[in-house]
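New to this. Look over this protein:
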Amino acid sequence: MTIRKATLADLPHLVNFNQAMALETENKRLDEVTLTAGVRAVLENPQYGFYLVAEQQGEIVAGLMVTYEWSDWRNGIFWWIQSVYVLPVARRSGLYSALQGKVEALAAEAGNVCGIRLYVEKDNHVAQQTYIKNGLHESHYLMFESSHD
């Protein structure tokens, strides 16, 4: 298995992963034009974040995105893990653990990361157990939003 930062060549895989994840977790169909532009924006603008992909035998089988949130309280940056997707045939093989491990290693290298966070659907108990198994814990914060899409 190889874990690496995604490049523009990975755009179609990342778009497909995001579409599959939205459909699977929220029964939501994402607009492909908007989604493609959004993924491309991250790949072309590292200040927004980055994607990691996992390859097995030359095939991309998993990916995730990391975005940034400045914390004035901590004078540091939280890294948010988002858009996690592992192909169904590759699940339960340690891919998410490897991806999170790479995120943690990159955060340690960056030196100004004060924490790693993610959010998960309230009913996605399988994913929640995966995150707990990998050392993450439930935050004491609730998430609220105002959506404009």
